[in-house]
Specification:
Strand content: 25-35%
CATH superfamily: Metallo-dependent phosphatases
Helix content: 25-40%
Order of helices and strands: EHEHEHEEEEHEHEEEHEE
Radius of gyration: 17 Å
Mean pLDDT: 93
CATH topology: Purple Acid Phosphatase, chain A, domain 2
Number of strands: 13
CATH architecture: 4-Layer Sandwich
Structural class: alpha/beta
Largest sheet: 6 strands, mixed
Number of domains: 1
Low-confidence stretches: none
CATH class: Alpha Beta
């Protein structure tokens, strides 16, 4: 299976000639065009959150008009800058609602694989949010087809981002990150976790499962001074999974 990943596009609607709105729009348009022109069109495209910057209907309509140009099917998950209500409304999607809680979490099958979108967004702040309801729902989705190799995509990387003390993470509650790890540990069919949010490249492991965090498609939003000069102006990730479900990720620079 071949997955193209987009993330942290932070689309805003042009109001004047000031700002980076045109830079971000160009990055998304060029990525969509480049994905469509690949010799092997991906089986699926994912967007791992922060589609837009302010969560407005107008921003989502503009973003959808560009994403709809993709030749491959695409799936999305919300980030901290997204509004689940506006996102699902404008993309014609259904959120999960139970006991007064609304989140956007779902599963779909592509070829012999299963994709699960895990919602880590919250309206309270920019940190990632997981609770028992979301984790229980994720566990249910994994238990539906335990024999199928599964890729989880989400916005906030559910992992310690530091090699030393103290812990560095992007969640309201690190206990929930540990709970997420325990779910992954008892579901060996999960072959990768794909994320965004931190605006830099990062790879790690959740137990035996590889995690890849992708920087924004536009270098203008990259926050890593160490890699900024070597980062393409516009790029997306291409994840290839072999017959043994091994992950091989490439950075695809866009001219």
């Amino acid at each position: 299976m071949l997955i193209a990943q987009l993330t942290d596009t932070h689309i805003t609607v042009p109001k004047d000639e000031i700002g980076d709105c045109y830079v971000k729009l160009e990055a998304l348009r060029n990525c969509v065009s480049a994905i469509n022109k690949l010799d092997t069109v991906p089986d699926v495209v994912i967007h791992s959150g922060d589609l837009v910057h302010n969560g407005s209907d107008e921003e989502y309509r503009l973003t959808k008009s560009i994403m709809d140009e993709l030749r491959a099917p695409y799936f999305i998950t919300p980030g901290n800058r997204d509004s689940v209500t506006a996102l699902t409304k404008n993309f014609g999607l259904n959120s999960y609602q139970n006991a007064g809680t609304t989140f956007f979490q779902y599963a779909t099958n592509v070829l012999g694989y299963r994709l699960i979108a895990s919602d880590t967004s919250t309206e309270n702040n920019n940190l990632g949010f997981l609770d028992f309801q979301r984790l229980a729902h994720l566990d249910d989705l994994l238990n539906e087809q335990p024999e199928r190799s599964t890729v989880i995509f989400m916005h906030h990387p559910p992992i310690n981002l530091s090699n030393s003390e103290p812990l560095k993470h992007e969640y309201e509650c690190y206990r929930m990150v540990k709970n997420f790890s325990e779910i992954i540990d008892r579901n060996p069919q999960v072959v990768a976790v794909l994320c965004g949010h931190i605006h830099r490249s990062f790879t790690g492991w959740i137990n035996a499962t590889p995690l890849v965090a992708m920087p924004p498609i536009s270098r203008s939003l990259n926050r890593d001074p160490a890699s900024y000069s070597s980062t393409p102006n516009i790029a997306f990730y291409l994840h290839a999974f072999s017959t043994k479900a091994q992950l091989n990720t490439k950075v695809i620079a866009v001219n």
